[in-house]
UniProtKB/TrEMBL annotation:
Name of the protein: 2-hydroxyacid dehydrogenase
D-isomer specific 2-hydroxyacid dehydrogenase catalytic domain segment(s): 8-324
EC number: 1.1.1.-
Keywords recorded for this protein, A-Z: Oxidoreductase
């Protein structure tokens, strides 16, 4: 197959530079309206396109992929997380899957720090108060938050984004770093970040002033932080999540925020986006962002070009640089 004839579906709008790069090279269908595609449309696309470039907003399950041979041979995902794709079903149907690791690490670590700072310093509450006309002026006890310097940040998962967050928190904000992860980081990485690995999640939760989640989503990490884990956290600790919504039991989180067991939380991701758990919406001490982790112009362009690099490799029959299935 020549590269020009490869049929590619991009399911959502991409930054113009990345869309342009693909349309110059392949027969590309773009989604100019940027409307989420229905499951029926996605299922149909498997018979119409050689390559589909989905995002986290496309749930690609076994029913959509189907068992019969389909035209689509590659899902070049725009994003590093891939829990929205049924990887086993892709393997069974001989559909390769790639993601975009690395290019969004700094942007997402920046956002984790933003959530940590916003939650600790109560800046969301402050802005709401000011805009509502409720600010009555400076006073010594007004909206006192918590300092980060000298406090302990516990990272759950210690891959690319967690380590970049550790770098910012340790070298920029003077925080001590603990981590809990499936595998240990190299000793020089631990030394460079002043990071200590905890043997159990419970130990990390017990010792951290701020806990930030960085594991992938999916069955293995579903409700990893529930009522029992929150009860193990320090009284008044802060919980931040830029990983995936399913990692937290949000009813347990809302109860802990209401009772003051946790002083604050900062969330970028939710179990059934774009729905935000109603129990959280009325709480002042939770920062709620609309999944902005990688949302910078530079990062989103780089993500598109990284997905395109995988399409290029597929077109030329080369090994896929970011193959996950
Ligand atoms: P990564 O480099 O693969 O890091 C994942 C880390 O989690 C690894 O240290 C991994 O350990 C560990 N881990 C996996 N399963 C675990 C388990 N069951 N228990 C304990 N540790 C476990 O991935 P990344 O690039 O840092 O991205 C992390 C996640 O962030 C992505 O999967 C994605 O869902 C999310 N994300 C969100 C945004 C956003 O917009 N908010 C943006 C980018 C990414 P091993 O080394 O043993 O595998």
């Amino acid at each position: 197959m020549t590269a020009k004839r490869l049929r590619v579906l991009v399911t959502r709008r991409w930054p113009e530079a990345a869309e342009h790069y693909l349309t110059e090279r392949y027969e590309v269908t773009l989604n100019a309206e940027d409307a989420p595609m229905s499951p029926a449309r996605l299922a149909q696309a498997f018979d119409e396109y050689d390559v589909i470039c989905p995002t986290v907003s496309d749930k690609i399950d076994a029913d959509i992929i189907g068992a019969a041979p389909r035209l689509t041979r590659l899902l070049a995902n725009f994003g590093v997380g891939f829990d929205h794709i049924d990887i086993a079903a892709c393997k069974a149907a001989n559909v390769a899957v790639t993601n975009t690791p690395g290019v969004l690490t700094d942007a997402t670590a920046d956002l984790a720090m933003a959530l940590i700072l916003t939650a600790a310093r109560r800046t969301g509450e402050g802005e709401r108060e000011l805009r509502d006309g409720r600010w009555s002026g400076w006073r010594p006890t007004h909206l006192m938050g918590r300092s980060l310097s000298g406090k302990t940040l516990g990272l759950v998962g210690f891959g690319r984004i967690a380590q970049a967050t550790a770098h910012r928190a340790h070298h920029g904000f003077g925080m001590n770093i603990l981590y809990y992860s499936r595998s240990a980081a190299a000793p020089d990485v631990e030394r460079g970040l002043g990071a200590n690995r905890m043997a159990t999640l419970e130990e990390l939760l017990r010792r951290s002033d701020v806990v930030s989640l960085h594991v992938p989503g999916g069955a293995e990490t579903s409700n990893m932080i529930g009522a029992k884990e929150i009860a193990a956290m320090k009284p008044g600790a802060i919980l931040v999540n830029t990983a995936r919504g399913g990692v937290i039991d949000h009813d347990a989180l809302a109860a802990a925020l209401k009772s003051g067991a946790l002083s604050a939380a900062g969330l970028d991701v939710y179990p059934a986006e774009p729905v935000v758990p109603a129990s959280l919406l009325g709480l002042e001490n939770v920062v709620l962002l609309p999944h902005l982790g990688s949302a910078t112009v530079e990062t989103r362009e780089a993500m598109g070009l990284r997905a395109a690099a995988n399409v290029n490799a597929f077109a030329s029959g080369s090994p896929l640089p970011d193959r996950i299935a």
